[in-house]
Prior knowledge:
Elements: E1 5-7, H1 11-28, E2 40-44, E3 57-65, H2 70-76, H3 93-96, E4 101-105, H4 127-136, E5 140-142, H5 153-164, E6 171-173, H6 179-183, E7 185-190, E8 193-201, E9 203-205, H7 221-233, E10 238-244, H8 255-266, E11 271-275, E12 283-287, E13 293-297, H9 310-313, E14 314-323, E15 328-342, H10 345-349, E16 357-363, H11 369-374, H12 381-392
Parallel strand pairs: 2-7, 3-4, 4-5, 5-6, 8-10, 10-11, 11-13
Antiparallel strand pairs: 1-9, 3-14, 7-8, 12-13, 14-15, 15-16
Helix pairs in contact: 4-5
Amino acid sequence: MQKKKTLFRNRKAFLVVAVFVVVAIVVSVGYAIVGSNGSPAEKKSAKSSLKSTEDKTITMLATGDWIAHDSVNAAAKQPNGSYNYLPMVQDQEPLFKKADIRFCNDPILNGGAVSSVAGYPKFNSPPEFVYDMGKFGCNLVNTASNHSFDRTQAEITASVDAWAKVPDTLAVAGQNRNQAEHDMVHTFTVDGIKFGFLAYTTYINTDSPAQNTYGVTVFSRDLAAQQIAKARAAGAQAIIVSMRWGTEYSTSVDSEQVADAQWLASQGVDLVLGHGSHTLQPVTELSGANGKKTVVWYSLGNFLNSQIPPETLINGIAVMQYDKAGQRFTIQGYVPVYMHYEWTAAQAAAENTNARHNLHLYYFDQATQAMFNSQQLKTTIAAQRERLTTTLNSRGLSIPLLKPDDVKL
Length: 409
């Protein structure tokens, strides 16, 4: 995914009663009420109706990029021509489904229903990729990416159509079928708290120029300010912003990320979920409007993928809570994961990426040096654990590395 960047950004009475009863039932099961022309798209979590509003916290997990590289697609393809990605991520599914809010990043096109399936550089997954993300538990999803215009608006529309078929999502934002969807502000309610969700990319690939003004939501401060205000006006008590930004393969934060993060904090955003570098980047808390604290994950790194650098293969799941009384997000920790595959030294030297096989996402504490060696990773478990710890806490926080059993949800 190495690309250069470019910026953008009586009977009547009976009928009336019946209508209200139907509406009440629909809302209680979390049916989507979708607005247009910039009005909020609201969803209520079906799970939230089963929880007590007296709960003090709302739990949240967040992953990095799900990327359908050619070898990922090959591993998922079944003898009958269908695709099944879930076996590769089955270890993490039980933990992930325990959280109230489950963020995932889908940075590629999912238009396999209208054109051929392909990996790098012009990604296009089959719709099963989306459906399996939904089965895994993803219910809050970013789709805005530098890859959004890799193909045509038809693939974007097919991608949005695929996500529209996934049940029980809270919000999916970033790619759009029309201008009304581009302008839409998404909100959802969990456990009595209404959240706003905005999703942006700060750039698109230079060889994939924008085909229209609406296919992907490109970040600008003017647009973001308008949408943040609309979310607040719609009753959002907390706002989550997804940002595709930064320098690919860098574990450091660039000046544009810092400036945009501080600006978002000044607008009263509660949580910023960054991605785009394919690597874990630092986490911080910024002071914003009226001294409010904004949690910023500059980059969550990768999740399901088959890239080559160790920094793209060893990342993790962010564990957070929303404190209802304090009206803020807090960080519980970070659960490291390890994306494993195998190939020979000769295959790696020849960059025969299609030779990668035996793909599986493990928890990092399951990794062994022998597994690293079979993947031709020139690193050690100790070195990668140190990288994760140092990167997470380089901005003054103290975020522990957690094992799955340590997570409190």
